[in-house]
Amino acid sequence: MILLHPLLLYSWTHLPLPVRICLIISVISIGGILFALFNILIHRYVLAILQRKNKTDCDEINRDLLAAMVLESTGPATDVSLFEKFLASKRTRCLLVGEMIAYRNYFSGKIATRVCGLYLALGLDRIARQNLRARSWATRASALSELFRMDVPLDNSLLHVFLYDKNKYIREYARLFLIKQSPSDPLRFLAEENQPISHWEETEIFHLFEHDDQRKAPALNTLLSISNHTSLISLGLKLAAFFKEQEDIPAVLALVQIPDTRLRIEAIRTLAKMEAHGAEETLVKQYDQETPEVQATILSTLGRIGSAGVVNFIERQFNESSSFEIKKHASDAIILLSKYSKAAIDRLLASTETLNRTILNHSLNPLINGL
Amino acid sequence: VRHFLDHFFDVYQNGVFIYCCAIYCCYLLLTIFSYVSILADIRRNHLRKNLVLIQSQLTPGISIIAGAFNEELTIISNVRSLLTMNYPLYEVVIVNDGSTDNTMNSLVREFELTEVEFAYFPLLPSKPVQRIFKSENPACSNLLVIDKLNGGSKADAINAGINAASYSYFLNTDVDCILHKDTLVQMIQPFLDDEKRVIAVGATLRMVNSCQVESGVIVQMKAPREFLPAFQEIEYTRSFVLGKMGWNLINAIPNVSGGLGLFDKEIVIAAGGYDASSFGEDIDMIMRMSKYMCEQKQPYAIRYLPQTLCWTEGPSSLKVFKNQRIRWGRGLYQIISSYYKLILNPKYGRLGLIVLPYNFIFEFCAPVIEFVGILCYIYLITLHLVNWPYAIVLLLFVYTFSVCLTLLSIVWDQLVTRRYRLREVMRLCALTFIEPFVYHPLVMVFALWGYVKQFLKVTSHWGHMQRKGFAPATIPVPSLREAGPSLREAGPSLREAGLPAGRQVPSPIERLP
């Protein structure tokens, strides 16, 4: 302070501009330091109190839910009044909803239905529906997510509005809702909209079909059209591989000619997963025009489809190709076709070429390939 | 001469002032950006459910690649920890980089490894692979161990790991790093969620030095007690939470840490893999991947997560710390000298216009300017030319601003993770006040030392950090009941009822306050 003393003798206007700037920033920084320290203290203090309260309430909610939903799952309808006390404050209401969503996620069947019934009986959906009109996208997305996870139906006209929202999360949930609420042809609107979807959304949509035993295989023809966005075609291929419906094979086979290499590879892989007998001829014909990456996929697919007619073709590729990747895929395919390719395997193992033998032994080793 | 020096000091002082204001403006922007980025991440996490990924058939496979050199003390527990990640499809590739201790024998014995005839194709350059092992124990069927000649660098080991990896994504880590159970499920999300092609994802790293570790799992999180690791903890918080998260918002992340990074294997291979001659192989890899994507005219993104998903042992002795920082200094020098042609080249987009200019002006030049500044100060003091009131105001400005930013980074960090007790956080805050006087000069001197060594092309090896090992746990691992209320308590009842108790039991790290 003694050193700073002469500074006090000057008036502010006499100080050089850099010094004035420094002084202003220093004062702001000191304010920032105090803010940071108090913020940490207050934040931690408030949080500690909240955590303590939440723990007690969570315990109680969980105990009640467990008793009403799981242990008495075969008993009479749930006593709603038991849970009404949790609706008094926003905090306990949120805790209750959080726990109910967790139950909904981890249970299926009667318990899940009871949880959804309790959610509706308590009128929690009304609050979430109100939140759909909130200005903040985070609140709207959160409300959509809550209603989606609790299987609460929403009006299609409202969902179509959300389909064009600026926020991607809201758009995603609107799409998921529409798929969930359309038991017959749930994917048609996706093809009509023709909007790209992310891999995450693809996973979520796939999850809907994967974990709903009641759901029939959707019609994929509209999705598997070359005119669609690549992400939609990709989703269609994944669903085709999952449901393995024979009527989808021609549509998938048509995609083997698509110019997009990644999609072409995916289509070829889908044929393998669908065990599309009859596709071999097309794949073999196409083999020579393809890039090495696609060629390797074709060989794997031929192995997985598993017909005797292609053994010689695969063996030839294994012997003639100079590409390590192609040799490796051909070798895997030969091993997959071992029912028909015993002689070919013996012939190749007897070969003098070290690389070929190593690759074949690699494919034959159950520790590596988990065969 | 005197006249020339006076003139030089005038120009230098003004230049440094402008430089200082510019760097602080950047830091301020990064602070704001990081806040926005962290909030976006919190919201995203609220809407995205990990369970969807864990249960899905579409979840992409990941190869965890970890290099090991003389790690016999910790290798078994750490590999065990890697084998218990919460992810449906992954493999662990351990690359024994010519260890001279018992690392390889321990692995063979513990994991029932057997040598296999593996079709290994050296797509990326590395020292010759001698043997490849797989475990005969079905519980470790996803473990692959590569025994290769010592390549003298981590890059060489990782390249060998990539050559043997099966999946399209690989996680680059060190075998001595401790990963959170949810590391893979968290880090894969940006790859699935982003509109652009994500080529790499990183996450925050922390010091494990004072944590209690049992069988490769952290059972009690503690802030480092020793001074040097504690300062590094502060530095890491600032660098990851404030720096990387700030750059994340504008997709201009300069580096994904070598301790923890998830990469798109196809792009890594296309970019030529890791450079074994680089002292900063992690930043070099990101530069080359970014350069490759720009040259291919493909939009790309590099993302960072604010969550702490990896704990690493920071150097606790000055000698090891010095070696590490000299290496980092050399690495930065190599990067600037290798990629200077890209600076301000619009063809390289953000890489050429933001990442490299920032790294050159504010990362590379900062220690030089700072060092010359100190020399000037000493010279002016000896000549009694210092206007002390003004000098103190300038120092106060620099000091308070730095402390303020560091404390804000701790505040931001508290938004995401509150793993330390309040007392420990306050201790870190207190250390922030002395960091500019104690720790920062060391970082500056070692960085300059690295520049000089690199400039003079002094040959030195990559170096190996002597591990101390981890503090054993003194508290028992919390039981399921202690872990918290809600569904966890329902476990036995659910099983009795024949219902799926599918909820993932949180890892011990998650259970701690």
Question: Would you give an account of this structure?
Answer:
Chain A is an all-alpha fold. Chain A folds into four domains: 29-122, no CATH class; 133-181, no CATH class; 184-251, no CATH class; 275-371. Chain A contains 21 helices and no strands. Chain A has helices at 5-9, 17-71, 81-84, 90-106, 109-121, 124-131, 137-149, 156-162, 168-181, 188-193, 199-210, 230-243, 249-254, 261-273, 280-287, 292-305, 311-320, 324-336, 338-349, 354-364, 366-369. Chain A is extended, with a radius of gyration of 31 Å. Chain A starts with a helix and ends with a helix. Chain B contains 16 helices and 13 strands. In chain B, helix 8 crosses helix 14. Chain B is globular, with a radius of gyration of 24 Å. With 513 residues, chain B is an alpha/beta fold. At the A-B interface, helix 1, helix 2, helix 4, helix 7 and helix 11 of A face helix 1, helix 2, helix 7, helix 13 and helix 14 of B.
SSE blueprint and pairings:
The complex is a heterodimer of chains A (371) and B (513).
Chain A: H1 5-9, H2 17-71, H3 81-84, H4 90-106, H5 109-121, H6 124-131, H7 137-149, H8 156-162, H9 168-181, H10 188-193, H11 199-210, H12 230-243, H13 249-254, H14 261-273, H15 280-287, H16 292-305, H17 311-320, H18 324-336, H19 338-349, H20 354-364, H21 366-369
Helix pairs in contact in A: 2-4, 4-5, 6-7, 7-9, 8-9, 9-11, 11-12, 12-14, 14-16, 15-16, 16-18, 17-18, 17-19, 18-20
Chain B: H1 2-47, H2 50-55, E1 62-68, H3 75-82, E2 90-97, H4 103-110, E3 113-115, E4 129-135, E5 143-148, H5 154-164, E6 169-174, E7 178-179, H6 183-187, H7 189-193, E8 197-207, E9 212-214, E10 217-220, H8 227-249, E11 260-264, H9 265-270, H10 281-295, E12 300-312, H11 318-339, H12 349-382, H13 388-416, H14 422-455, E13 471-472, H15 491-496, H16 508-511
Parallel strand pairs in B: 1-2, 1-6, 2-5, 8-12, 9-13
Antiparallel strand pairs in B: 3-4, 4-5, 6-11, 7-12, 8-11, 9-10
